[in-house]
């Protein structure tokens, strides 16, 4: 049976993963409407992955005798200056999610919930990959520059992390 504090912070994460999924969906729409097909594809795939994360949290909370809460999600921004701003915001958001996962780790230790502590390690590892993958995209974008956006957009799907594409 899940302890209340653990259940509450896992429910907070369900809402955050749902927001992540919608944020990347809004970015995908922006990219698609601006002729960036490859970037849109990457963002749609990323959005699906965040939904899978959300479902993983939901399944875990319910399986451990808790109850998942499906809450309202804040509307994500739909306008972006350029593709660089999109990925800067993706990176910033992933850093926020990493901090959020670390707070869950802290609560599981304080509450001596070693089962959830063990379970959440998947997401600790996942966040290392997410941040590394977005940093690599930022590097490539800086290297090619805005005038080579065609090449960037053509190559981006090849940069999806192995683990990420399986989840
Ligand atoms: Mg996630």
Q: Tags for this entry?
A:
mainly alpha, Ferritin, binds magnesium ion
Topology:
Elements: H1 4-33, H2 37-63, H3 83-110, H4 114-119, H5 121-144, H6 149-155, H7 162-166
Helix pairs in contact: 1-2, 1-3, 3-5
Bound molecules: magnesium ion.
CATH architecture: Up-down Bundle
Major beta sheet summary = none
Report the sheet-strand fraction: under 5%
How much is the radius of gyration in Å?
Answer: 17 Å
Shape: elongated
| Structural class by helix and strand composition | mainly alpha
Which ligands are bound?
magnesium ion
Q: How many helices in DSSP terms?
A: 7
Total count of strands: 0
How are helices and strands ordered from N to C? Answer: HHHHHHH
According to CATH, the fold-level topology is Ferritin
Distance between the termini: 27 Å
* Overall pLDDT metric: 93
CATH H level: which superfamily? Ferritin, core subunit, four-helix bundle
* CATH class group: Mainly Alpha
The domain count comes to 1
Which oligomeric form is depicted?
single chain
Helix content: over 70%
Low-confidence stretches: 163-167
